[in-house]
Amino acid sequence: MNEYFCPKCNSPLRISNHIILKGKPSDSDVFGNLILFEPILGDFKVTSHPSCQMKEGVRMEFFCPVCNANLSADNDHLAHINMTDTEGDNYEIWFSEISGEQATFKIKAGQIAVKYGADSHKYTNHWGSGPNY
Fold first, then answer.
1. Per-residue pLDDT tens digits for 17-43
2. Which among 62, 66, 70, 92 is least buried, having the fewest CB atoms inside 10 angstroms?
3. What predicted TM-score, i.e. pTM, was given to this entire model?
């Protein structure tokens, strides 16, 4: 199974069958709750405590649960973590911070290797190229 890591402190983020991050709505002063993501790229199921209000269309901010680093990218409402696949290849995984939006990118050497989700086109031009990662 793929392993996921914080890009800042390199702590493992996959425990059992979930990627664990801290998250909060970007317009909230409350620091956030733990949010569980599926470790299979393209599976957009998210689990959180009911007190974590993830309203559709609202931008979330995601943080490493170990070092509290903000995982937000500098562009396009995306956050990122690192991944090592079962063959030992390393990738950056970029995903939408917009609640309910389905867009994830597997990045190798600054280029999109694979894109997932019905909303991934929002982050690419009409030739399929995305921003520089």
1. 999 999 988 887 777 789 999 999 999
2. 70
3. 0.90
